[in-house]
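for the recovery benchmark. tokens below, seq after
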């Protein structure tokens, strides 16, 4: 995998993998504590038909870790700057978890950038979340208990997978490597606390309002065995998004592009046409 470092107009530097080619642009937006590598099982296949772009979100992977809010508006501004830096006027956008939620914020900021969208298990469509995700919201000791230590990283990845065999040593090692970089604890905790409180999901009314205005053709993908955001929220997301299709993937947890890459790629290709 050949990557490059791109400096955005926001001042942020991030790592980008761009397949090039003449096909339509397809931008992949990863989730919390992930990085470019979480797309490795689907990128090569999708690159046969699309110009596939993957990158590290601010605060994660090998991107800069600025002292920012790490909320939807923060990420959306940097994502818009990335599209500008890569001269992508319009694209299909695919997001996973946090990355899927961020696409709602990006649309509010720059709707002209969107062709179609794929939202894989976005947060914000229901209050219930696993208690592990709520740890950073605890007063005083929460940020310390919920920080991305090797022990917590293993727990989080196992929580995200239906089949624990998909928590490969390579994936765990990369997660620990990136989590040990300076500023990672701050970016992880702030990102999680922006969307999850002591009682679970936060700002549900805001997410609902954003979803109702998201008028691009949208595929909602969800693993039936998702323990991070229960699959019952998939129907709510599809009902709120005006032009959506819904696909549930069997034997799959929170990362369908990692656990069920063939089914994920097939669903994306069929939807995008």
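predicted aa per position
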């Amino acid at each position: 995998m050949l990557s490059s470092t791109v400096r955005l107009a926001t001042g942020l530097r991030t790592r980008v993998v761009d397949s090039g080619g003449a096909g339509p642009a397809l931008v992949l937006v990863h989730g919390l504590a992930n990085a470019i590598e979480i797309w490795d099982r689907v990128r090569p296949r999708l690159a046969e038909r699309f110009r596939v772009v993957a990158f590290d979100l601010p605060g994660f992977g090998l991107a800069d870790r600025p002292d920012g809010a790490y909320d939807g508006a923060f990420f959306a501004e940097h994502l818009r700057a990335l599209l500008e830096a890569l001269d992508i006027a319009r694209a299909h956008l695919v997001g996973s978890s946090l990355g899927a939620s961020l696409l709602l914020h990006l649309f509010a900021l720059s709707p002209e950038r969107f062709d179609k969208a794929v939202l894989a298990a976005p947060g914000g469509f229901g209050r219930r979340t696993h208690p592990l995700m709520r740890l950073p919201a605890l007063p005083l000791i929460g940020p310390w208990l919920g920080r991305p230590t090797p022990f917590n990283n293993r727990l989080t990845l196992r929580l995200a997978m239906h089949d624990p065999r998909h928590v490969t040593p390579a994936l765990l090692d990369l997660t620990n490597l990136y989590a040990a970089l300076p500023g990672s604890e701050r970016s992880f905790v702030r990102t999680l606390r922006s969307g999850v409180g002591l009682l679970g999901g936060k700002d549900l009314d805001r997410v609902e309002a954003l979803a109702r205005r998201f008028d691009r053709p949208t595929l909602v993908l969800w693993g039936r065995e998702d323990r991070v955001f229960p699959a019952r929220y998939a129907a709510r997301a599809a009902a709120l998004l005006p032009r959506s299709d819904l696909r549930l993937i069997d034997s799959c947890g929170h990362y369908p592009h990692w656990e069920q890459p063939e089914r994920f790629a097939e669903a994306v290709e069929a939807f995008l046409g």
